Amino acid sequence: xxxxxxxxxxxxxxxxxxxxxxxxxxxxxxxxxxxxxxxxxxxxxxxxxxxxxxxxxxxxxxxxxxxxxxxxxxxxxxxxxxxxxxxxxxxxxxxxxxxxxxxxxxxxxxxxxxxxxxxxxxxxxxxxxxxxxxxxxxxxxxxxxxxxxxxxxxxxxxxxxxxxxxxxxxxxxxxxxxxxxxxxxxxxxxxxxxxxxxxxxxxxxxxxxxxxxxxxxxxxxxxxxxxxxxxxxxxxxxxxxxxxxxxxxxxxxxxxxxxxxxxxxxxxxxxxxxxxxxxxxxxxxxxxxxxxxxxxxxxxxxxxxxxxxxxxxxxxxxxxxxxxxxxxxxxxxxxxxxxxxxxxxxxxxxxxxxxxxxxxxxxxxxxxxxxxxxxxxxxxxxxxxxxxxxxxxxxxxxxxxxxxxxxxxxxxxxxxxxxxxxxxxxxxxxxxxxxxxxxxxxxxxxxxxxxxxxxxxxxxxxxxxxxxxxxxxxxxxxxxxxxxxxxxxxxxxxxxxxxxxxxxxxxxxxxxxxxxxxxxxxxxxxxxxxxxxxxxxxxxxxxxxxxxxxxxxxxxxxxxxxxxxxxxxxxxxxxxxxxxxxxxxxxxxxxxxxxxxxxxxxxxxxxxxxxxxxxxxxxxxxxxxxxxxxxxxxxxxxxxxxxxx
Length: 645
Ligand code: AHR
Prior knowledge:
Layout: E1 17-23, E2 27-34, E3 50-56, E4 62-63, E5 71-72, E6 109-111, E7 117-122, E8 133-138, E9 155-159, E10 165-167, E11 172-181, E12 185-192, E13 198-206, E14 214-222, E15 227-236, E16 240-251, H1 262-270, E17 275-278, H2 282-285, E18 308-310, E19 315-317, H3 323-333, E20 336-341, H4 357-371, H5 377-384, E21 395-398, H6 408-422, E22 427-430, E23 445-452, H7 454-459, E24 473-481, H8 490-505, E25 510-515, E26 519-521, E27 532-534, E28 539-541, H9 543-549, E29 558-559, E30 562-566, E31 575-584, E32 589-598, E33 604-611, E34 624-628
Parallel strand pairs: 3-33, 5-17, 17-20, 20-21, 21-22, 22-23, 23-24, 24-25, 26-27
Antiparallel strand pairs: 1-33, 2-32, 2-34, 3-30, 4-29, 6-9, 7-8, 8-16, 9-15, 10-15, 11-14, 11-16, 12-13, 12-15, 18-19, 27-28, 29-31, 31-32
Helix pairs in contact: 4-5, 4-6, 8-9
This protein binds alpha-L-arabinofuranose (AHR).
């Protein structure tokens, strides 16, 4: 596939606006602004076959759904835990190995030698659902007359977070933890760099509590220097025993003040998502039901969330990003929340339909948590967390990829009937594909997932051309090129762009679409590729992220009918285009947005003829062109070259 990456924009023409774009293996958008419409200045033509795209701007077009393009957030690749959830401490409650002792307190480690300090877990926590705490026995003593002096900075325990904590000079961090002690001492709370430099420190004067009671402590540390791979240490230089539990460190500056890592949340917000599907994926199912995500364990005070081991993606999560946080994130992004719940089916097990009753009640409780009044049982829990107003939950998905598993249909119907009875407005999403044959059960949407190679996804731009326009709508909740896609490359994004244009054209059959997965922490890839790559302090969008940005104005826009014409020697097989019209309220202009993907080997001149507007109404200064391209189809972005593609 040859790449020439050259673009020419065409000329003004009385009642017809012409825009000529030469494209080869790249996706381009022409954004034409006008009181009606406009065009950008003319550039040179290219020696390539010319294809004419004709659109009538005065045609009202068909309005596309407000929810057409959105996001799918799954706890995979440390998307939440060690990612979007800004908690810096990993394994805050020392429970990663379960509720029994000895538990796994990894990645916590001992500060000091064996002769100076002993650390280990016991079950003395004040939290009934998190019984494990960390016991720190300090053996050294600065005041001691003997020889066992504590080292500078004291001894105790430290946590390196998720492959290092990003501590920035001038920034503030709130450190909270629970403490129990039977003696008086000064506790040092510090962020230190990899090489042991103190970046921020506060001392807490701890009084002996004769009853050995627990108390919550909170300090704000302001960093005086930067390290992207820092750690948090809690240390003492006085002989005695103390206990720690539920240690948290968060930057005070988070997205909308709700605990989301700001730069990552901004990348989501830039996409103007119409919906947020969460929290999985397979994560919702679990390999075993006992390890599946359960909403009620992920709400309420963070200290008393038990956390769980996600046995599909194989890591522990403290569940700081839980059900409540998913709803809150959707609200903060202006997106409709779509809650995917477990329907009694994991990868290995299925609860028989006759026993599904308690699972149905659990989901009804979950909906009450989201939508119930603040004086309802579960609405009160939500209100106590700081959100007395109901969340706007109008969509739920009954399971994930479970259509052909035992008891799915029976279980589905039990959930469907109970939810429709209590919440008739809630739209329900089936796991069974209704794109080619009608569903054998009632649903508002059917879920459609596709992971494939670039050529096949390009071919799938026609996937919904012949899908029934009546009955449930398609929710393409997971799509991506996963073959020959490296860690996310240009050719994958081109195919995805073509597929999404196909969805725009078929947006009377497809009402929602989201790429998957959204995030990957580069230190622990569980799935590849992903839209946004990050580590403790950096982030970049793969081409698959940037291609989604081309569609950020599509939600609620009008699809303008268009035709493509070429001479008989020119093949149109590699080209897909769409024309949509969107009003921008901030400047009062209408935009005609033309998107095109040329997936073929040859450059094409795309000439745009727009009728139905006057050339005088063109606002050239507000018009723009956006190109996605790079030198080679396999090119990827990276931390060092985040905008290569
Ligand atoms: O997106 C990654 C996984 O792919 C999802 O968890 C699952 O639904 C699909 O199989």
